[in-house]
Design goal:
about 550 residues; alpha+beta; 2 domains; 19 helices; about 10% strand
């Protein structure tokens, strides 16, 4: 008798990966190091195999040296902690199993418009290091921190305003369901201004990280560009062109196979059977078993739940309970105004002793935003600003949440969060129509942090993963309470609530303490202000 404990099915653990962007200075062996007298600096990288007449080719040698450094410490083969649960998952993720070293054309060091003269004495190579897909476990974040320490202690490196820290969050090879996408996008929308206070404000002037709250299609009021609504191309029937909205990007009900199953089972008869379960008044899960005979023994048909005689399918059924639907309706009527039903949530209580006062949410003018962008002009990544790119008025938290919770497919979520001309602080592009149909890497990319090669890299990665973890797993009342606190942190309510409080609510207590230290160290340089004690700011 087998007395082993059976494996309990459940949702897959979240996974993540990071992209570290930085610049590496280099010199030829005989060249003098202009910063050699500075104590504590690691050695400058010396290029020996690139001829002086072809110095522009030094990037290959520099990146190869960085690759060999990682390989020397086992980071090409021994660190990956993710175990594949199936051959399909291995096929999807194997290409992301190693540490990769490449370049990024958006990362650069301007030589002729730079306030540091010593910059012109070096050659510079742009480097981007991509971590493998790792599970959401503590050791994976410690590895990120260890790699940063290895890099900066071995060779001299520099991060400048053109560099970024990107964090991809997913669930292995599985795609987030529509319900999860609604929740993740709603929390990202609500929390974006708060989380921005934890990173250099110059990042908000970068054209590669546009603010969702004033540059997304939802903020500017631009018509949704949904590919599945467009006329089909030559040889492409409308049924196949709209496969994302009809099937792949639809929600997963309790008892149904995950989204990945649909990629292996998307014949037209299966899609049509699925659509029957999404008609109005039909709430049961979708099953498809062509090998099961009907009760009368005739033929092999899909096994479907009871289906009422309804002619028109319901587009984008709501999975919200009555309380959530009431809040969404009220938010739509309020046109973005902050509000709360009396007694809807218990009073908020601080769960951890803070070491800094609360951070006042910045409300920057157009001129201040343009000044942030001007700092990035020498690096070629300045946001063109309102005179070039359309900028909308922030519609507020609840108005945005109302639209996101009503999305009929995950590709509609991606379309509403899309920023025209470039990507936003959080990029949902992997869930756009073409990406869903092609089955591209199903991650959400957090792009709002500036380049960093210190402990904050691992901390910010943990924050991004923790935000998604809370969004998909928190009970509805706790989820809505956090969204409401984010909404009330802005005028006119000005609840004493900031990014540190948000991290505490997400149960990221260690990250909250590190965030306090980071804000304290950078507050004056970033132009942040404290909430005064009489305003409810506490210490």
């Amino acid at each position: 008798m087998d007395n082993s404990t059976p494996k309990v099915p459940g949702p897959k653990r979240l996974t993540f990966g990071v992209e570290l962007e930085f610049m590496v200075p280099w010199l030829y062996p005989e060249a003098e190091d202009p910063l050699a007298d500075i104590e504590g600096l690691p050695p400058v990288l010396r290029v020996v195999n690139t001829p002086v007449t072809r110095s522009y080719e030094a990037e290959n040698e520099v990146r190869d040296i960085i690759k060999k450094l990682l390989e020397k410490h086992g980071l090409k083969r021994d660190v990956r902690a993710l175990r594949y649960s199936s051959a399909a998952e291995e096929a999807a993720l194997a290409r992301y199993a190693n540490w990769e070293v490449t370049g990024d054309a958006t990362v650069n060091e301007p030589l002729y418009d730079n306030k540091h003269e010593w910059v012109t004495k070096y050659g510079w190579v742009d480097v981007e290091i991509q971590s493998p897909v790792e599970p959401d476990i503590p050791v994976a974040f410690r590895i990120i921190q260890w790699v940063c320490g290895l890099l900066t202690s071995t060779y001299r490196m520099r991060v400048n305003p053109s560099c970024g820290l990107h964090v991809h969050v997913g669930r292995g090879a599985e795609r987030f369901s529509l319900t999860e996408m609604r929740r993740i996008s709603s929390l990202v929308w609500a929390a974006e201004p708060l989380l921005a206070t934890l990173n250099d404000p110059a990042r908000q002037g970068n054209r590669h990280t546009l603010a969702l709250r004033d540059r997304s299609a939802m903020a500017t009021g631009e018509p949704l560009a949904l590919e599945h609504d467009a006329p089909p191309g030559p040889g492409d029937g409308q049924e196949r062109a709209s496969l994302c909205a009809r099937y792949l990007a639809q929600d997963v009900r309790h008892g149904e196979q995950p989204v990945s199953w649909r990629y292996e089972n998307r014949d037209e008869d299966q899609v049509l059977a699925f659509e029957r379960t999404r008609r109005a008044g039909c709430w049961g899960p979708f099953y498809y078993d062509p090998d099961r005979e009907n009760d009368d023994g005739e033929g092999r048909e899909p096994v479907l739940p009871d289906d009422p005689d309804v002619d028109e399918p319901r587009k984008g059924e709501s999975v919200l309970d009555a309380a959530i639907e009431a809040r969404v309706a009220k938010a739509a009527e309020a046109s973005g105004a902050s509000w709360v039903v009396p007694g809807a949530f218990p009073p908020w209580e601080q769960v951890r002793e803070r070491t800094i006062p609360r951070i006042r949410l910045p409300r920057r003018t157009a001129a201040q935003r343009q000044a942030l962008a001007a700092q990035l002009a020498p690096y070629g990544c300045a946001d063109p600003g309102p005179e070039v790119a359309r900028r909308g008025a922030d519609p507020g938290v609840w108005a945005g949440v109302a639209l996101l919770q009503s999305c009929a497919s995950s590709c509609e979520v991606a379309a509403r969060m899309r920023t025209a001309g470039s990507r936003g602080t959080v990029d949902f592009g992997a869930y756009a129509c073409d990406a869903v149909r092609a089955g591209r890497r199903p991650t959400i990319e957090f792009r709002g942090a500036e380049g960093v090669l210190g402990p904050w890299a691992a901390t910010w990665a943990a924050i991004c993963v923790g935000l998604v973890r809370f969004a998909v797993g928190a009970p509805p009342d706790e989820f809505l309470a956090v969204v409401d606190r984010c909404a009330r942190a802005a005028p006119p309510d000005l609840l004493a609530y900031d990014a540190v409080d948000l991290l505490d609510d997400l149960a990221l207590f260690a990250e909250a303490e590190l965030a306090e230290r980071r804000v304290r160290a950078n507050r004056r340089r970033w132009g942040l202000e404290w909430v005064k004690r009489e305003e409810g700011g506490g210490k």
